Amino acid sequence: MLTTRQKQNIFKEYGIHTTDTGSAEIQISLLTKQITELTDHLKKNPKDNHSRRGLLKMVSKRKILLDYLSKNNSKSYSSLVRKLGLKK
After folding, report:
1. Environment class of residue 54 by beta-carbon count within 10 Å: exposed (0-12), middle (13-18) or buried (19+)?
2. What one-character-per-residue DSSP string does 33-70 give?
3. Domains of the chain, with CATH numbers?
4. Which of 5, 11, 12, 48 is most buried by its number of CB atoms within 10 A?
5. Any keyword Nucleotide-binding (predicted)?
6. Is the pTM value of this prediction over 0.90?
7. What is the pLDDT of residues 33-64, one digit of tens each?
8. What local confidence, expressed as pLDDT, does residue 18 receive?
9. Is residue 88's pLDDT more than 80?
């Protein structure tokens, strides 16, 4: 679970403007942070299938958002993928 301070840092780093909290870039970066934390949890707890299902849902939602961003704003897409260190 992300703390409020972590979310605010992500909003500042990836936001388009100061009050941006819902753009595709923000959503992708929040999901990426949650995915990395949940992946670490699942390495320690391999039998936690409920969390694994949530992880798969997050990964698929991030993929949908990345596809949307690549179609509508390829410049922003490429810079975001580079910043987050994603494979694409």
Report:
1. middle
2. HHHHHHHHHHHH-TT-HHHHHHHHHHHHHHHHHHHHHH
3. 4-84 (1.10.287.10)
4. 11
5. no
6. yes
7. 999 999 999 999 999 999 999 999 999 999 99
8. 86
9. no
